[in-house]
Amino acid sequence: MLPKRSYAALAALAVTAGALGGAQAATAGQGGGGAHGPGRGSAFQRTATYPVFENRPAGADAAEQTVAEISATSEDGRTLVYTDAAARRIGFLDISDAGRPEGLGTLSLKELGDAEDEPTSVTVVGQYVLVVVNTSASYTTPSGRLDVISLKTRTRVASHDLGGQPDSIALSKDKRYAAIAIENERDEEATPAGGEEGDLPQAPAGFVRIVDLKGSKPAAWTTREVALTEADGSALPVLAAAGIAAPTDPEPEYVSVNSRGQLALTLQENNGVVLIDLPTGRITKAFSAGTASVDGIDTVEDGVLDQTGSITDVPREPDAVGWIDDRYLATANEGDWKGGTRGWTVFDSRTGKVAWDAGNTFEHLAARYGLLNEDRSENKGTEPEGLAIATYGSTRYAFVGSERSNFVAVYDIDNPVKPVFRQLLPTTNGPEGLLPIASRGLLAVSSEEDDAEAGVRASVSLFRLGRGTPAQPSVVSAGSGDGTPIGWGALGALSAVPGRDDALYSVTDAAYDTTRVLTLDTSRTPAVITRELTVKDAAGRPVGYDAEGIHARPQGGFWLAVEGRTGAGNQLVRLDSKGVTRQVVTLPSDVAAGLGSQGFEGVTATTDARGHEVLWAALQREVKTDPAGVVRLGRYDVQAGTWSWYGYRLSTTTTDGDWIGLSEITVVGDRLAVIERDKLNGPAAKIKRIYTVPLPKSAAPAGRLPVLAKTLAHDVLPDLRATKGWTQEKLEGLAVAGDGHLYAITDNDGLDDSTGETVLLDLGRSRTALGRG
């Protein structure tokens, strides 16, 4: 076997960044070469993922919604404070040890004001936490306050009325001023005169509130308003002249301050940026964020990762903004009601012109890393929402977060007009707050999606900049024939590639409407998807199978284990080498009648020297007529066309709503290896195991279900936990490659109720990994 190519060596796969507004492809790996940042000898490595429900108050239900949206740290970078709008509180974490965050409890805003008060943003200055709180009773009577909390005692020491509904807060570099975006957001169900539902204008207009942080007593701090409309409600000439949409109803979204005390303010719904001098409160410039046309993206929600669509003249509608230096600023163009260009932009603040635009490249990152959320293809795609700028050592980075594809992209922006992609960081769902802690070489990412029933929990993830190859992502894709990356996801099965030491096959499942067989090159780190083969029906038309298992035949072609929505829909499907369906094997009627929607989950085979092929297939759950806790392993003699069955006894669970099932089967020498797993994820996960049973040499007696003795061969849970991320539920693929290494992979469900992260584990030599060395 050739040695695996390292993280740095993948630089050879890079495609040069495109020019302004054009297409730009990322590297197939993470980056490479040099000595100062990701791709140049260093990278951000995930150190911990902390589910914030674990920091809930005593007696609170663990299933109640609790999130982490915007975060800040103490000046020593060791205490992290996050906003939890869902639970109406702020939380505190001890991150002194970046590998073991500890909950320090929460502070309820209900106790400081009203039960409906919600924090929208937070920052820290000296010994104080500044929390902006939305106290609005309605859209037409917006209100808010600034609470000043002692970081030491966690008591409120002062509160200031803001005169409107706040969104974000930022400090000046000299910590003399805080600036707050007072959004006074629109009602999406209201219809203004002459407009459509949700349109602007909807009074009252938003504005900026500046807090003068003069003196050591927060109660003595003063505030002043920077109006964004005239006193009579008409548009400011500077906004109207800049082409700001609906300038009589500006809705400030996000704020950032450069070293000269200049505030950059995004008006997301108005598609504009306003610059304000903080000391004087004077508006110095305003400009439209403009529109963009983007080609080579998925724009149709049809269950197919089709990157041939385009959007034309769409407003950017920027959300987060960050100063790169005192001249250039960057925006994350999430979009809102009319826009969203699926990327981010660098503007020259002197001219208000675009200096660089990501074009389709941010969306292509999602496709390349298996994170393209097809369900959002018709509605803003990846939705880049969060953005942060920071300098680590001698390198300046931009961090851009995808709300819908659950990642943060890291760029080297030492040259502000030529950002270079360096690394992708998988996160939990809805990364909202991006917090560089450069003094400690850390990045904190806080996420806002929390659904206990679906097993999706909000968290704070920590990453540390250091040398070496990050463990994740573990799979990326190369380019397809048209230059776009191969889009992928839902890899719930693995097979060795006959005749190759360093490759695996996988297959997509029902997350997509067209089934594809994908080839993974495991000689590289991360592994690279180099080829896609569309699966077709007998007539040669693309077909969608719920393929849960794959076996590559030494004699050519493949067997797929196809799970049905009902028992009768379960099939073993033989494909030729071009992916065309050549044979379909159904279940015996008595077995099919006893199955629900959880049927075939894996297929493997043996072929002797005479070409006699015997298939082995695993059912996920019990047939209703079988003994409780005993699931079937099917033996199908291809030549004879006959089925026989062996039993496998499942482990048990005591967790409400949980169940145990099988999710893969493969031949390993004289044994069958199976994956047995629960349906739990995150800190609740308990059973992610590989067991082996003897490989029967003949068919089981008719009418009997002999139970095979199982042996625990490998507990995969510690391997999943070692990634320091969210422990994935669906450990579903297993194969021994030609080099003898045992690989396992998780199914990301195409991001449906999942973080979207795919974990490919190289468990080492199979004889060692399975306890047979």
UniProtKB/TrEMBL annotation:
All copies of domain Choice-of-anchor I, residue ranges: 340-422
SUPFAM superfamilies, alphabetized: YVTN repeat-like/Quinoprotein amine dehydrogenase
Record domain Phytase-like: where: 487-749
One Pfam family recorded for the sequence: Phytase-like
Organism field: Streptomyces ziwulingensis
First and last residue of the signal peptide: 1-25
Record's protein name: Esterase-like activity of phytase family protein
Annotated keywords: Signal
Keyword Membrane: no
Chain positions covered by the region annotation Disordered: 25-44
Biased composition annotated in UniProt, kind: Gly residues: 29-40
Gene3D superfamilies attached to this UniProt entry: YVTN repeat-like/Quinoprotein amine dehydrogenase
